[in-house]
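Note to self: keep these together.
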Amino acid sequence: MTASALTRPGERDRLSTKITELDWRLVALLCLVAFVGTAMLYSIAGGDWQPWAIKHAIRFGLLLVVMLGLAMLHPKWWFRAAYPLYGVLLLLVLMIEFTPLGYVAGGARNWLNLGFIRIQPAEFMKLGLVLALARWYHSHTAQEARWSWKLLIPAGMIGVPFILVAKQPDLGSAMIIGLTGGAIMVVAGLSWRVIAAGAVAAAAIIPPFVMFGMKEYQRNRVLTFLSPESDPSGTGYNIIQSKIALGSGGVLGKGYGLGSQSQLEFLPERHTDFIFSTVAEEFGFVGSFGLIACYIAIILISLRIASLAHSHFGRVAAAGMTAFFALFVLINGAMVMGLAPVVGVPMPLLSYGGSSMMTVMIGFGLILSTRVHRYAELPKGQGLF
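Structure:
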């Protein structure tokens, strides 16, 4: 007999019961990673709460409350919001390209100035994509998810924002969008023959795309990744300094606040993309391994939550959000170790940045909502509402 059969009707709708159903291990791990991020930002600033640490801590505190509030929402509200949210976010991405509201920051036209607020729609597009794909797969059979002409629809849902974001150009966000969408299609049951054919096609397309489809500075990043020593004071500088920071920490590190690469500002973007290198320099292999272990635990717990959901929407959405988070960790980790090109992907909850943290925390709100309402069933159907 399942736990749902032992629960009185309506009892799970009580707020007190929902709070007890939260996975507090996951909440604690998220708080721990954010605490480490705050501590490292304090260290990087030379033992000062300004300009990064205090803002990072306040943002996380506020978003923690938002996350817990979203966890109380019944999955039907996430389900109903999926398509409208995707449509609105796609419209915002289009506005960057075709209206004067889009503006350039950091070399890419990926920000939207709405007057009262400036946002980066590509960050939230990842969230909207996961929800929209989860709703689409919820309304289709396992056979259609495995192999069918209807798969052109989710492929288009992934491809359109991928192309628009890559054109900005924001290679890091485009990569996350494409890989997250691909991961959801695999989780939903895509045929292994299609996966193999896609891998072969990607291997054939990537080299000419790098040489002829990328802007010059993007192509330099990729080529420099293969041989950073060829331009140590130019395009290879970031990777070389990151490797020095990683290696100089040794087993136990130089000590908190004593990382020369970050304190003396040799390490570029030390508060955002390369903050993990600072962790390795100050706390060594032991500290960085402990941090990675926290990330792995977060991913495994989230996957377990996805597997327990009764609704197909809940399973796919929670697994998609987990894949989105895992890709951030994997790509940033590979980037700072010199195993991948520098594409501007932050380490979640560790790096300084409001848009990225907000997207991640909303995503975990969905995952926790799936945990709290794991016995919820959602109707089939393809209508908008």
